[in-house]
Amino acid sequence: MLRVLSLLPDSVVDGPGLRTVLFLAGCPHHCIGCHNPSSWDPTGGVEWTIEETVERIQAIGNRRLTLSGGEPMLQAAAIVQLLERLGPNYDVILYTGYVLEEILRRRRWHPLILRLDGLIDGPFILSKLDRTTRFRGSTNQRIYDRQQLQKRVLHENKNSPVSSDRGESDHAYFCS
Description:
Largest sheet: 7 strands, mixed
Number of helices: 5
Strand order of the largest sheet: 3-1-2-4-5-6-7
Strand content: 15-25%
Structural class: alpha/beta
Order of helices and strands: EEEHEHEHHEEH
Radius of gyration: 15 Å
Oligomer: single chain
């Protein structure tokens, strides 16, 4: 199951090209100046099954998908199932308020990161607002492509001890 706020069929601001955007509920970051504070509530939106979500995305017909929120990483395991069902022919970008270094410490998130074509990381910081940065709201946010993500995950898996992530679940408080 996914906790979904909305599915937007046509966006040109959430990654390169015309994209479908899946907005997911729940966000622990609560960034000051957030463009979507209604996404913070982990019980917001509606629950969709993976199959329901696949059908709705496929019905749109666009093979470019952006995952946003809220905080998509909180639903990482369900998103992996979604992407497996959609298959390899989708260009998938994910926006997260976590920085990549923090994501890499959470091994349970690696399967999702390895399925992405792009990642935009970092919280929105109002004092770093810059309306000229493509696909980002503040200058601290970074864009990673597929090769960069795979290299970082593989490096992390070779050189770091496993993080236990004890006590957390995927639904915990919830390139250019």
